[in-house]
Amino acid sequence: MNKTIQATRSFLLLISAVLILISPAGTCRAQERLTVDRAVQIALENSLQRRMAAKDVEIADEGLARARAEFGPTVTLQGGLYRYNDTPSIVQTNQGLVKLNNALSAITSGQVPEASLPSDSRTYYGGQIKVTQPLYTGNKLTATRCLAQANLENARKNLDASNNNLALSAQKAFYTVILSRRMAGAMDEAVESMTGHVQEATAYHDQKIVPKLDLLRAEEKLADLKQQQLYAHNNVDLAQTSLNYVLGVDMDTRYTYDDTPQTLPMPRDLGACIETGMENRPEIGAVAAQIQMAKKQIAIAQSDHLPTLALVGEAHRYEPENEDPSAQIGIVASINLFDSGRTSHKKAQAARGLEKARIAKKQLFRGIRLEVEKAYHNAQAALKSIDVAQKSLDTAQEALDAARTRYRVGLSTSLERLDAEVSLTRAKTNYIHALSMYNIAVCELERAMGKE
């Protein structure tokens, strides 16, 4: 009996060990500690928008390879099998000529050599191979290759811009989570403090020291703070979900954070910021590539007015009509003499595209300057608001300490204590909001300056 129990226990232990080994790793995986740099890295790895921009680069690269291949020769192989419902007329004519030739040969006793009759088969087959090498295309191939190169550069710059935009979105989402978490923490502290005040008011009321109204005011304010606390924690969940969306991870993913207040370094010189933005923004490289593309479109349109030259070699064999193979080689030239103005309109259309690209460049420079100045001034204002909020927080804390002391010794009412509690909570949230808005403003400034 004991052996049976021992075996059963051993079997159960074995089953438990197997279940532990095959259990999903995620159930025991520690939550990753997330920083703003790590958030940007995850977003760049998972973003579908970035993948599409990267595919645009690959597509443009293949387009450049195709444009380069246009300079090489083209080899075309053609074959066919044909079945006629009657002997072709040319074959019937040849048969008649051969019969006449053979009749003359019989009359002249062989002085006219006999010839073999052409096949009367109605099935014909054969093949042809053709090699074409462009020699001169009016600069069309060169312009097409340059157009493809500019398109590749445009795609690369658009990818860089997509990376910058995605990085900013990840940074803003990250700092929003930090903001919501610290706001929730501030509300937790406010509820805890107000709970202590309610307990004090209850004790004083029981001792007939304070009126019932003081206790009711404290309880009403505690209820209001608890409601705000619920909203604050709900904002934390919403902010984390939004961050997961930006990062491209599962919506239920949770991270750990360092809620210690941190401020990013602030550039001091607006002129240097503008100059950096004009040098680093990838959109400038993209619009420059678009201008180059428009120029090459004009060159391609102009090439339709010029002649083209190509080296052509051809060899073919068809049976039974032409059993002997034949070959030829030569240079083929062509030029459009009249096309009802299509080439002229195509050139004019490309010229309008070039004008539009140049206007877009001017507009882009103005827009970059506006973005940099706006982000710079926002960051400066947010930085100053941190100092103001810090002083307000210190003052509110001192006022609350004084109000608590006065209330406990009976020198003030509950209303003064409540006002001090509310002022401290407001000062804390203002300080937290100022820190977060400053960090977001600096991130926006760095993005406006084109920093990676």
What does this structure look like?
- With 452 residues, the protein is an alpha+beta fold.
- The protein has two domains: 30-71 and 137-304 and 342-448, Up-down Bundle (Outer membrane efflux proteins (OEP)); 78-103 and 114-136 and 308-338.
- The chain has ten helices and four strands; from the N terminus they run αααβαβααααββαα.
- α2 (36-46) crosses α5, α5 packs antiparallel against α8 (282-303) and α8 (282-303) packs antiparallel against α9.
Protein traits:
single chain, Outer membrane efflux proteins (OEP), elongated, 69% helix, 10 helices, 452 residues, four-stranded antiparallel β-sheet, alpha+beta, 2 domains, disordered N terminus
Number of domains: 2
Low-confidence stretches: 1-5, 11-29
SS field, number of helical segments: 10
Identify the strand order in the major beta sheet. 1-2-3-4
Helix- and strand-based class? Answer: alpha+beta
Biggest sheet character:
4 strands, antiparallel
Strand residue content: 5-15%
Q: Supply Rg.
A: 42 Å
Number of strands: 4
Q: Indicate the percent of residues in helices.
A: 55-70%
Secondary-structure arrangement, i.e. CATH architecture of the largest domain = Up-down Bundle
Principal-axes geometry comes out as elongated
Q: What would the average pLDDT be, to the nearest integer? A: 85
CATH class of the largest domain: Mainly Alpha
SSE arrangement, N to C: HHHEHEHHHHEEHH
Do you know the CATH topology of the largest domain? Outer membrane efflux proteins (OEP)
Any idea what the CATH superfamily of the largest domain is called?
Answer: Outer membrane efflux proteins (OEP)
- Distance between the ends: 73 Å
